[in-house]
Design goal:
Number of strands: 0
Strand content: under 5%
Order of helices and strands: HHHHHHHHHH
Helix content: over 70%
Largest sheet: none
Shape: globular
Distance between the termini: 25 Å
Mean pLDDT: 82
Number of helices: 10
Radius of gyration: 17 Å
Number of domains: 1
Low-confidence stretches: none
Length: 249
């Protein structure tokens, strides 16, 4: 049981510090610890909703959130959530829970690998844009991310952050705060859908959430004091390894 408290604190710290590391670390970690993939995804989404609410509130108070961009992304993500939820229900009812778990594991592995490589590319080869994306681009990005988050609990952090770096001139702290607000609303709705499908372990979610709160607070305050580049590289490498292990496992 103690390992879950430690895991919650560590992931909360990473989310508060870098805006990433939530689903990309927690979901595969839970699977490695023996939790069913569908339960790992649903439980992580509930946990992420709580931690991202706290982190986004703290960033909002610091003036680090662009509410308009977050809202436009959400306009596309909700339909993406619903379509993925329908597909998961169809897959479970047609072929059973084991097939659904295998499918979610494989999708999660691919998303982890792509996300880790995208993060490294973003850090070393990408410069922030000086323009504002049109609403259609934001909505389409939200749709894709919403669909992936519903299936894997991964995607909102890395993919949205990458998009905002590519197509906006927002500074990094505002990108993190904007993504956290978007991620909070997205994971909240996704967790409700998973709860309705019986994919949430509430006891496990409570352990992770309680231990994550001090981690998030510590991460947010630490974020303004250190250069987190090397931490992001190490985290991306860890995510890449997790993705490969899940893919080959």
């Amino acid at each position: 049981m103690e390992i879950f408290y430690f895991l919650g604190f560590a992931v909360g710290f990473l989310v508060g510090l870098t805006g990433m590391g939530g689903g990309a670390v927690l979901t595969p970690a839970l699977i490695f610890l023996g939790v069913q993939p569908r339960i790992a995804v649903g439980t992580d989404l509930l946990y992420s909703a709580v931690t991202r609410f706290l982190a986004s509130l703290m960033h909002y108070r610091k003036g680090n959130v662009n509410v308009k961009v977050s809202s436009t992304l959400l306009a596309g993500s909700i339909p993406g959530l619903l379509i993925s939820a329908y597909f998961m229900t169809f897959l479970r009812n047609s072929w059973g829970v084991e097939v659904l778990n295998r499918f979610l594991t494989q999708i999660l592995a691919f998303v982890l690998i792509i996300s880790s490589l995208a993060t490294i590319y973003k850090m070393y080869f990408l410069k922030s844009a000086d323009k504002t994306p049109d609403n259609l681009s934001l909505i389409l990005t939200g749709f894709v991310v919403g669909a992936l988050v519903q299936l894997t609990s991964v995607g909102s952090g890395v993919l949205v952050t990458l998009f905002l770096l590519l197509f906006t001139g927002m500074v990094s702290r505002v990108i993190v705060g904007t993504e956290l607000l978007f991620g909070f609303v997205l994971t909240f709705f996704a967790s409700i859908i998973h709860a309705g499908m019986g994919n949430v372990d509430y006891g496990l979610a409570l352990m992770l959430t309680v231990s994550s709160i001090p981690g998030v607070v510590a991460g947010v305050f630490t974020s303004s004091k250190i250069d987190d580049r090397m931490l992001r590289v190490a985290l991306s490498a860890l995510i890449l390894v997790m993705g490969v292990v899940l893919l080959l496992g």
